[in-house]
Design goal:
The protein is mainly β. It folds into 2 domains: 231 residues, no CATH class; 108 residues, Lipocalin (Beta Barrel). 4% of the residues lie in helices and 49% in strands. It has 1 helix and 27 strands. The chain has an 8-stranded antiparallel beta barrel. Strands 11-9-16-17-18 form a 5-stranded mixed β-sheet, with no helix packed on it. A 4-stranded mixed β-sheet has the order 4-1-7-8, with no helix packed on it. A hairpin with a 6-residue loop joins strand 13 and strand 14.
Length: 358
């Protein structure tokens, strides 16, 4: 909550600082993850032969500076280098805002300097204006870089599916509020970047850059003009499988994450006082599982069968809260009816495949 509160305050400050202008304004952003060591990404920004900004590192940016209309040669020199790694000539027009940004990593995608024209006209009352730009060079093949932008629950935002490297959404207006978004594969089955929920106040204007390559630098979201957004680990299948409870015999739970919807479904299996086995089921619902923790209702289904006319009756019987500690250890807090909650520890019964929790 603290991160969201700070984010909202920063947004208000940005809006308050916007004013009328006549000269061109240029923001320069370093979005090129060309070195594993963050200090190794440091560059000097040279404008018309003059080193104007020095020691700028990956995800750093220079906010708007006013420049007279005209042509400008902007070159990017790695610190200590005598030749630019990238650069270009840019023509600026009075009264226009520009974002100039360095992209690529020099391996999967080439280093280059590119620019977009910014639109800082205020959104309609009660709205937020957002633009999404894909500057994460995580694959050499352009098709392999395609992503979708979704809510935590898996719904596509603004038709943004099949967005390749270097593409941008243009400006979208959405109602002010708290948004829980993520960057996923085209089909939504794999989550790449999952920021924490952020409160966006009315009137905000923001460009979200997908950054990093997953090779030299981690994937992330740079929200210009604020900075990097805090992230959580993307939901995957790490928790999937059978878990045996240590306090008892033949008791445990089955976890089935649904990464496409940040969702957790499964079964709690146990025995009643007569020694007969029974199964509770649960479903966290879309957007309610962060890959580590979930709290959801337990349901008990009775009746039913393979013959026609047999009806299943399902009712709520309690709650269960999961916390996945690592690839082999978990905890579950179970409450049945009005009884006191009981804490159980569990061990995974089968070795995980591709677990990212350690």
């Amino acid at each position: 909550m603290k991160n969201v509160f700070v984010f909202a305050l920063a947004m208000v400050a940005v809006m308050a600082s916007q004013s009328a202008f006549s000269a061109a304004r240029v923001a320069v952003l370093h979005l090129a993850p060309f070195a594993e060591d963050i200090d190794g990404t440091a560059v000097d920004i040279v404008i018309n032969g003059t080193a104007t900004f020095e020691g700028v590192r990956f995800t750093d940016f220079v906010p708007y500076v006013e420049l007279p209309a005209g042509d400008y040669q902007i070159d990017i020199f790695p610190v200590g280098a005598t030749e630019p790694a990238m650069g270009g000539m840019f023509s600026l027009t009075d009264g226009v805002d520009y974002s100039v940004f360095a992209i690529g990593n020099g391996s999967t995608q080439p280093l280059e300097l590119t620019a977009l024209v910014d639109n800082n006209d205020a959104p309609a009352a009660g709205n937020v204006k957002l633009r999404v730009v894909h500057t994460a060079p995580f694959a050499a093949d352009l098709t392999a870089t395609e992503v979708s932008i979704r809510t935590a629950g898996g719904a596509v935002v603004g038709g943004l599916v099949g967005v390749p490297y270097k593409a941008n959404s243009g400006y979208l207006e959405v109602p002010a509020g708290t948004y829980d978004l993520k960057v996923a594969s085209n089909d939504g089955s794999v989550n790449y970047i999952d920021p924490l929920p952020a409160a966006l106040p009315a009137g905000a204007i923001l460009t979200l850059f997908a950054v990093g390559d997953g090779i030299n630098q981690d994937l992330g979201i740079l929200a210009y003009p604020l900075g990097l957004l805090p992230l959580r680990a993307p939901v995957d299948n790490s928790a999937n499988g059978w878990w045996g409870v240590q306090e008892g015999s033949g008791v445990g739970f089955i976890l089935q994450p649904m990464p496409s919807e940040n969702r957790l479904v499964g079964t709690w299996y146990s025995y009643n006082n007569m020694g007969a086995p029974f199964f509770y089921t649960y479903d966290s619902g879309p957007g309610e599982f962060d890959g580590v923790m979930a709290e959801t209702t337990l349901y008990l289904s009775t009746g039913g069968g393979a013959e026609a006319g047999l009806e299943v009756e399902t009712k709520e019987v309690g709650t269960i809260q999961f916390e996945i500690m690592d690839c082999f250890d978990a905890m579950a807090t179970v409450r049945i009816g009005n009884t006191a909650a009981k804490l159980y520890t569990a061990k995974r019964l089968v070795a995980p495949l591709g677990c990212s929790l350690d």
